[in-house]
Amino acid sequence: MRRHEEGFTPVFLGSGRCFHTMDWFRSCQRVDGVEPIFVTDNLGGEGFVPLLRPDDKVRELILIDSVLFRRSSRLGHVWRNLVKLALVPLQVIRLRRILLGIPNPFIFAHSTYYAFLASFCNVRYSATPQGSEVLVRPLTSKVYRSLLRRSVRRAMFTTVDSRAMASRLEELSGVRPHIIQNGIDIAEICARANIPDVVPHRRRVTSIRGFDANYRIVDILSARDRQVPSQALDFCFPFVEENYEQQIGALVRDTDKLHGRLPRVQLYKILKESICVLSIPKSDSSPRSVYEAIFCGAALLCTHASYIDALPGCMRRRVTLVDLRNPRWLADGLDVAHQIASEPYLPSDEALALFDQVSSMRRCLALAADAVLPPI
Fold it and tell me: Secondary structure of 11-57 in the HEC alphabet?
């Protein structure tokens, strides 16, 4: 088994159906001299498509797929968390056994739960919590706050993808994380989505967020009906919350297109055909789908979030902030979007350096190398 050139084996600990974790894993595979291993308790379930490939190096904890609900729902989410918590002692034992067979492992734990597991295994690891795990859940759950604190305090280092997360996490735990963007596959966007970046090819108005109440898909549909009733909408959504989907279904028209979760190349094709992309969540951290839309040349209509203020100027100029209290927010925003999308997007060197996911992965590997030297 080949290890990283600095003398450790990168081990990704996370869900096998999480596209964010999988993108990091794939990025690591593209770094010369690295052969990462993926350790998981969850390949699919709840209607999600497994993302791991047969040729990936995978080690399995106790898999929970068979006891999950058939479709994603709020009740199913609660049940999944209960199952995961109940299995913590057994999963820790299983993880320790797996690590014994891996030379000098360094774990990249993606999401708080998996970092929590790693914290009991006497192993060097990094923690990468998700946005809601820092910005939302600790506000309502003392148990979750305790779990988060242990996860990051015992890590060699912690990464987050926005200033808002970094500030909040330091308040909660006293840990100062590294801000590293999840990044996007810039090479794939440039190499595969070869549609001319000019407005005549752009006709779509596209929503790119999950079918969940946080992303206010019902608000988008209602605004369309009131303000631009002739406008068809495209929806690319990586996941569905079953109860909220019923509300959406009552407003979707035959002319609207529901694409679901798409492979990256197909998603980029739609983004290259989009005049405008919509993202108006109640809470947000650092959404890679927004960055992908910008690099594909679309204009963005977004509600304000702190990550927007931190964007390089070339990216910020593609974003129009909307106020949902304005009864014409969508109609007015589309007028501006047509103007923005008429000009091709030319990324600056700063944007390329900050948002390339392979570059982000190299930064994480460098931090891990600093943490493991001298080797165990």
Answer: EEECCCCCHHHHHHHHHHHCCCCCCCEEEECCCCECCECCCCCCCCC
Polymer length of the chain: 376
Our separate counts of H helices and E strands in the chain read: 17, 13
pLDDT in tens, 79-116: 999 999 999 999 999 999 999 999 999 999 999 999 99
Domains detected in the chain = 9-183+356-372 (3.40.50.2000), 186-354 (3.40.50.2000)
Rounded to whole angstroms, what are the CA distances from 357 to 21, 29, 222, 251? 12, 12, 35, 36
Query: Could you tell me which residues come within 8 angstroms of residue 88 by beta carbon, excluding any fewer than 6 positions away?
Result: 116, 117
d(CA 305, CA 283): 8
Taking the alpha carbons at both ends of the chain, their separation in whole angstroms is: 17
Residues 6+ apart with CB under 8 A from 165: 129, 131, 134, 135, 177, 179, 285, 286
Tell me if 326 sits within 8 A of 223, measured CB to CB: no
pTM of structure = 0.83
Ordered DSSP codes for 96-156 = HHHHHTSSSEEEEEESHHHHHHHTTTT--EEEE--HHHHHTGGGT-HHHHHHHHHHHHTSS
